[in-house]
Structure formats: C-alpha cells, structure tokens
Design goal:
7 helices
C-alpha cells in the first residue's frame, strides 16, 4: 500500500486516525463527542469574531464608506478567490446584488460580479495564459476607475489574487482584501486600500470570520448609501 505523504496527513488528519469501528462505538459516546466538538467550534468562532471586531471595526466602517461613495458614483464590485474563497466571492457578490431581507429594510441592489463564476473564461485563461492571471485579465477588461475589487484568500498568498489586486490598483479601483493567518503576501502589498486579516491557523474559522466581515461591509455600505440618498433627495 502506498504511503500517504505527511502533507496530506496534516491536511486531513481525521482520515488517518485509528478509530474504534463505528459498530462498536457506544452511541452515547459518539453523541457526546459531537456535542463537545460543536461547543468548541462555536466558542472558537465566537471568540475570533469578537477579536476581529475589536481590531477591525473602525477600518471596516471606513472601507464601507468608501465603497458607498463608489457605488453612488456608478462603481461596480468585483470579487474573486480560489476554492472555498471562490464560493465566498460568489456569496459576497450575491449579497450586494441581491440584498438579504432583514438587516437593512430599505437595502438596494448594487452591481456586483464574482470573477469565479464563468467557468469558460477561468479555464480558457488558465489553459492559454496561466492560472495566475485568471482574475487580473478579467479586471483589465471590465474594471474601470471608481470600481471596487475584493480579493479573498485564507492564506493571503494566492498569486492570482495578488496579481488581480495589483491590476485593480493600476486601473484606479478601490482595493480590498480579506486574508487569514498573518496576512501572507497580501500583508506586504502596498497597493491595497484595505486589508482585513483573520488571525487564525484554521481555514474553517478564517472563512467563517471572513463571511462575517463581508456581511458587515455590505450592511454598513447600505447604511452609508442611505445617507447619500437622503442628501440627493432619495435618488442614488
């Protein structure tokens, strides 16, 4: 049997742990283990969200105000990321384009697009040019001064996210990034307008907290736009 590489074992340890066969595990023990694990995870993400709020709240509010200014002037939002962050980019774009009911009763749809959604474009650029440019090339074609670019990366080191944010800055777009761990390469990117780092080694907790950050950005952007609408007599 082929030996499993250590890197794979570290990434998915639960697949290789020696466990008692499920048929012999007492049901109550399994239920207790699931309950304990759930409580631990809830405690972790709650504490992490509080830490992010304490460290980033003023900067999130400032970013939302700048986003509102750009939306009010006709700007559009482009979101992008890889893997789970690609899914989050789609969720982010959907939140802005199709506002959820509840948090902001008079929320308005805002032009937003996920650059991960077009499989033909992503695979064509990956195959013909290189995966590092799958987002940068799209921004070069679609982006314009006054738009907003939001890149998501749990590691902060995704080359195509870095390249896209550099291209966005070149185009005169507002650049926003969400990263994990210590921020990775994004922490040293001097073209970023805003960077929100989730200080956790867990990809799961990072993505959960990043979702909270972009929902807060959406809600605060909507509230800032409400002020703009009042100033313009109800017209956005």
């Amino acid at each position: 049997m082929t030996e499993v590489p250590d890197a794979v074992r570290e990434l998915y340890p639960f697949l290789y742990e020696k466990r008692v066969p499920a048929a012999t595990e007492p049901a109550t023990d399994l239920a207790d283990e699931v309950a304990r694990s759930t409580r631990e995870k809830v405690a972790e993400i709650t504490a992490l969200r509080r830490e992010v709020a304490a460290n980033c709240a003023p900067r999130i509010a400032a970013c939302a105000e700048q986003m509102a200014e750009r939306f009010a002037a006709g700007g559009r939002l482009f979101a992008f990321g890889n893997g789970g962050s690609a899914t989050d980019a789609q969720g982010l774009a959907t939140t802005f384009l199709h506002p959820p009911a509840g948090p902001v009763p008079d929320a308005v749809p805002l032009p937003a697009l996920s650059l991960t959604s077009d499989a033909a474009v992503v695979t064509a650029l990956s195959n013909d040019v290189g995966f590092d440019v799958v987002f940068a090339r799209q921004l070069a074609a679609f982006g314009r001064r006054g738009d907003i670019a939001v890149g998501l990366s749990t590691s902060g080191g995704s080359a195509n996210v870095v390249r896209a944010l550099e291209e966005a800055a070149r185009c005169g777009m507002l650049t926003v990034a969400l990263a994990g761990h210590d921020g990775g390469r994004l922490a040293g990117l001097d073209v970023l307008g805003h960077l929100f780092v989730i200080p956790s080694p867990s990809v799961h907790r990072i993505q959960e907290a990043q979702t909270t950050v972009y929902h807060a950005l959406w809600e605060l952007t909507q509230r800032a736009l409400r002020v703009v609408r009042k100033e313009r007599g109800g017209v956005l």
